[in-house]
Amino acid sequence: MTPDVLEKGEGESCGFFTNRRNKRLFYHLSPVTEGAPLVVFCNPLLEEQITCQPLVASWLRYLAQHRFNALAFDYTGTGNSWGIYTSTPDTMMEDVADAVEWFRNRQQVGKLFLLGIRFGANIALRSAPNIGVSGVIGVEPVMDMKRYWNNLLRSNLVTQLSIHGKVVEDRKTLMERLRSGGRINLSGYDIDLEFADSVRRFHITAAERGGGESTSLFLRSRRELEHARELGFRILEVMAKPLCQENVYYDPYRIDLFRKTKWFLERRNSGADGDSADR
């Protein structure tokens, strides 16, 4: 049996907690400050979760240096968590709620914040009303779900090219296989029609905008900014470049993003409204 807590040093810990479906989910927790606000990271999906993993670890440590408790975890069947990858957005939201409940049961918590990356931002926005958050940060949320799904399918086409030297099954054929009860592989994960349909329907709507100043979105393009503004989101910024990419070099842009998210969290934690940051 894997122990529940594996020490990492410098006050950090990683280990496992059990969710409502009796699956052990892997977590990475910053040094804990009693009564400090808690920031829970909501991961992106599939390959983007892997490429963002070092970034999330650095972000967690940065927030801990500024007296935030920070918790990252892997959804059921992903990363180091137990289970087969059958997660849908609904089960991912349950995992977010279970992570929050697990921490609240072991520590006194100040205000709660969610920080979601890519599809994890969509998860965070939809989860927020059900678990009593004081603010949500969405980094590159998926605003165009059709385009996002086509990009996920592209990963399968790229794999076919590397193995066969050509595309054996195009997007239409892949979708037909799903509809006939089969599974397809996306970035190493076998997914079924339930997963595909649940993701494609998971659009951000005006209902997710929260209290206006309680949500901060970092978007990929001006087009997405305009879309978010139409939905009623107010604290918006277009990112200089995509975040979920492998990067082995020092990146001052990411540090700037860390600072901006810290500023938003500190403002929300103190009860002050943020200033609109359309840039």
CATH topology of the largest domain: Rossmann fold
Task: Specify the number of helices.
Answer: 8
Overall pLDDT level: 85
CATH class of the largest domain: Alpha Beta
Q: Give start-end ranges of low-pLDDT stretches.
A: 274-279
- What's the overall geometry? globular
Our measurement of the CA-to-CA distance between the termini, rounded to an integer number of angstroms, reads: 50 Å
Helix content: 40-55%
Largest sheet: spatial strand order: 1-2-3-5-4-6-7-10-11
Number of domains: 2
Biggest beta sheet attributes: 9 strands, mixed
What pattern of helices and strands is seen along the backbone?
A: EEEEHEHEHEHHEEHEHEH
- Structural class by sheet pairing and helices: alpha/beta
Could you say what the CATH architecture of the largest domain is?
Answer: 3-Layer(aba) Sandwich
Task: Please tag this protein with its features.
2 domains; 279 residues; alpha/beta; nine-stranded mixed sheet; two-stranded antiparallel sheet; disordered C terminus; 11 strands; Rossmann fold; single chain
Q: Can you walk through the features of this model?
A:
With 279 residues, the protein is of the alpha/beta class. It folds into two domains: 5-143 and 204-270, Alpha/Beta hydrolase fold, catalytic domain (Rossmann fold), CATH 3.40.50; 148-193, no CATH class. The protein has eight helices and eleven strands. It has helices at 46-65, 89-106, 119-131, 145-164, 171-179, 193-200, 222-231, 252-270; strands at residues 5-9, 12-18, 24-29, 38-42, 69-73, 112-117, 135-139, 184-186, 189-191, 215-219, 235-238. It has a nine-stranded mixed sheet, sandwiched between helices. It has a two-stranded antiparallel ribbon with strand order 8-9. The chain is globular, with a radius of gyration of 19 Å. Residues 274-279 have low confidence and may be disordered.
